[in-house]
Amino acid sequence: MQQIAKWGDADVIVYVGCGERGNEMADVLDGLSKQVDERTGGYLIDRTVIIANTSNMPMMARESSIYTGITVAEFYRDMGYDVVVIADSTSRWAESLREFANRNGELPAEEGYPANLASQLAAFYERAGRVTTLGGRTASVTVIGAISPAGGDMTEPVTTDTQRFVRSLWLLDRDLAYSRHYPAVSWTGSFARDVEALGLWHNANGHLGWAVQRARAAALLAETDRLTSLAEIVGAMSLPGHERMVLLGGRLLRDGVLLQNDLSANDGFCSAGKGAALLEMVLDVMDACQRLVKRGVAASTIEQMDLTAVTRAREETGPADAVGVASRCREILNRLEELQ
Known about the structure:
Blueprint lengths: L1 H6 L4 E9 L1 H13 L13 E7 L4 H20 L3 E7 L1 H14 L13 H9 L3 E4 L5 E9 L10 H9 L2 E2 L4 H5 L12 E2 L2 H10 L5 H25 L6 H18 L13 H23 L4 H6 L3 H9 L5 H16 L3
Parallel strand pairs: 1-2, 1-3, 3-5
Antiparallel strand pairs: 4-5, 6-7
């Protein structure tokens, strides 16, 4: 969340700590106070509003903290600023709604939550959007809500109702975190409903075919997951050459595009142009490997080739150096052609 606050294209950040532990809120305050703002050169806390509502505060304070945060965001939006609201977490906010409803004697719905939980969530998220102010400026409010379902149950009411109204979901995967793959965002459980709009944006900014490449990457990851399960049973060496190249491409995609080092000053941020170039490089390399297999080159020969230059490109090129990534891609493809 601090990375979103640090690198997000927003003028004002509103962080709502709803039901958080006191030490966690202290860590957030301390971290934002020391985090250098890349936009202004000062500290990130200078353009951040924190709504601190710790878990030991009254129930009604927890219930009102979310509304306070979105109202503050709308105040700055009406002044012409782009604002991002980070609500952590809406699950604890929903728990306060459940507790308040029980005290009022309302009939409980699923898992004891009030019957109007879905409408309450919808009323909160629908306050996000892009507007034209009375002064003629274009401003916006973006809402990022964290959900912490008990026991990781993705079928509980807060999670299922939220997915009905939000435009995208980043599902954090515990297995990815344990394997030190950060950010630990699952590519199977996450989704976005604005793919078409993003594709048009990329086309307008000079990267044609981004939507097709994204679809290919999603298919590659899904096929890699399937083949990984199969390889654990029969062994990767037993698979045909083209399937072994899929496993190789999936590994390059995970390590070269989806992995990111938050502690690296160079890799902590990646522009949209560089991200698209990294994706294009991995897909081009995988296509070249598939062509070599079809021409009779042994899969083991390709696997033994040093392709770490693909995974190192994200750290060794600048945060916006798409040209450097393309140059490295050409070098790798030339080396692959020498295997013929």
